[in-house]
Amino acid sequence: MRSPNGGSRRGVATWSCFLAGLVVMLLSSPCLADTVSRTPEQMLRAGERMYRQGVLENGEPLRAYVKGDIPVPGTAFTCVSCHLRAGIGSVEGGVYTPPTNGRSLYQPVKKIYKGVPVKYNESPFRRPAYTDATLVEVLRSGVDPEGKVLSDVMPRYLLEDEDAELLVTYLKKLSSEFSPGVSDTEIRFATVYSEDVPAADRDAMIAGLEKYISDKNDMAKSYRRTTTARDRLMARAMSTSKELESRRLTLSRWVLKGSPDTWRAQLEEYNGKEPVFALLGGLVSGEWGPVHRFSEENRIPCLFPNTDLPVVSDTDWYTLYLSKGFYQEGEAVARFLNRRDETGAGVPVLQIVRLSREGRALADGFERTWSSLGHEPPVTVTLQEGETLTGARLAALLEREKPRVVLFWDGGALIPQLRELGSLRQQPQSVFVSGRYAGEALYALPEELRANTYIAYPYRLPGEKVIEPMMKSEVRFRVDDNRIAQQTYSLVQVLTMAVMEIKDNYFRDHFLDAIGMSMDRVVPLYERLSFGPGQRYASKGCYIVQLKKGDGRELTKMSDWVIH
Fold first, then answer.
1. Would the pLDDT of 187 be above 90?
2. How remote is the C-alpha of 322 from its chain's centroid?
3. What predicted TM-score, i.e. pTM, was given to this entire model?
4. Res 245 pLDDT > 90
5. Which of 9, 40, 213, 331 gives 20 to 30 Å between its CA and that of 420?
6. Is residue 284 within 8 Å of 192, Cβ to Cβ?
7. What angle, 0 to 180 degrees and rounded to 10, lies between the N-to-C axes of helices 199-225 and 483-501?
8. Whole-number Å distance between alpha carbons of 77 and 153
């Protein structure tokens, strides 16, 4: 029997089954299944990945063109590289990069952006508010809502409709609401310390932070009391941020008690009761890891905790450290040896490591860097707590391994073992130790061992003049010898500029962006503090020094500032 259109019922049934099967197959395909089941959070994360990494939801790189017709991968021209993490934009080298966050894109620009020398006539000039459609258009073609063509510095992205929707969804959410810890009247900060830290160190840190908070609030009061228009204009010009006029700063103390295993729960409780904009400083016994993970997972900036045992990571964002700590000393020794060995033949290295947190960090920094520079791993001998190397064992190691270099990653027990080494007939070419780990014991090094003992030293040398680079003049600091006080001073220098530079954009990511774009700082403890976009360690180097002959404490530089 035939159907009215001439086909058989069997044919119609077969075609219907085919269509049904096709629908089932399409709905069960990975792409459409994800579209159907994708949550708003998944859409944001997919858009975030496109913005920050230049990678599509399917794992492929975004495709783009620059200079009109030059194809480039989106991974090389990410949004974040110019517009920064928070999407607030930047001005660098006379090039103005406009904001790309939802609060800015979906509002008209009514006034010309003043006070910035720009090379391109894009966002500093008037434009209407973007819509979803015009935002997709500018991403694809570089044409803004007013019909102006943006500079060819801006890539043109080849976006499918679905990918465009994901990116637009993220941009609308990006920096659209102020971060937790900010109200109409205050910006809340906190500092974290464990109850068992030395009271002198704790008080040195707290005193520096509270003085900064007090000074800022007193300045704000003074500005609010100004009555003449001239004084108020001057106050605004000096502050560059309405924060000094309308919001006071507060500092809470988050005291951690008991085992580090319980710290995370305590931190979550503190943050649940009174969220803060950022954590300042911090001091705990042992490793900073538990606080680091809390900070990263809750997306709370943590600026310069006082620790020699930071979490060394290339991907984490929210915790900024003064340096990589002990890891950085091992790293610097590896780079120094690599430069000194000009033959390229490799350097036989024996590494003697105390099985402590400090010893492991030093060894890890050396081993990773040494291997990355193309060298064979060192021969490693580990020492348990309380264990020492006898002269006989040292002699056997030297005879068997024949190292040109011996690394002694040990603390206060270092000197007796170096004496044992010095008494042997067969000697390595050089011995390296950690100045920070050895501490005061280092200055007991006998004169006969000083000539071939090299010290990783991560600070300015004692008594060295500090020169302000802009004024070319000596800078004198009123900071005592307490290292925690000096580290807190370094924190305050960076924090002062960052708070001023956020300019009413109270977003945590923008706070970190502002630090990443800040100028180098001159401080008493470190050779220099410098950041760049995305960088997480402020002091990036280390000296290699030796003790001068005799029994004194004077140090001699054997290297420039070795940069990691």
1. yes
2. 10
3. 0.84
4. no
5. 331
6. yes
7. 30
8. 10
Between the two ends of the chain, the Cα-to-Cα distance in Å is 83
Long-range interactions of 153-159: CB distance < 8 A, separation 24+: 153/66, 153/82, 153/95, 153/120, 154/122, 155/64, 155/65, 155/66, 155/72, 155/74, 155/77, 156/64, 156/65, 156/66, 157/62, 157/63, 157/64, 157/74, 158/62, 158/63, 158/64, 158/65, 159/62
Contact 66, 155 (CB under 8 A): yes
408 and 381 Cβ atoms separated by less than 8 Å: no
- Taking phi over 0 as left and psi of -120 to 50 as alpha, with beta for the rest, 248 belongs to beta
Rounded-to-integer distance, Cα 564 and Cα 560, Å? 12
Return the structure tokens found at 285.
């016994």
CA atoms within 13 A on the CB side of 87: 19
Question: Does the domain formed by 327-457+544-563 have CATH 3.40.50.2300?
Answer: yes
What count of residues does the chain have? 564
pLDDT > 50? residue 29: no
Q: Which of 13-22, 61-70, 204-213 ranks highest by mean pLDDT?
A: 204-213
186-325+480-497 maps to which CATH number?
Answer: 3.40.50.2300
* Distance from C-alpha of 201 to C-alpha of 439, rounded to nearest angstrom: 17
Q: Are 390 and 420 in contact (CB under 8 A)?
A: yes
pLDDT at 373: 92
pLDDT at 160: 93
Query: What is the per-residue pLDDT for 212?
Result: 93
DSSP-derived pairing of the beta strands 302-303 and 278-280: parallel
Note whether 353 and 363 are within 8 A (CB).
Answer: yes
Read off the tokens for 218. Answer: 């007193």
Question: 165: which 2 tokens?
Answer: 């929707």
Query: What residue type is 418 in one-letter code?
Result: L
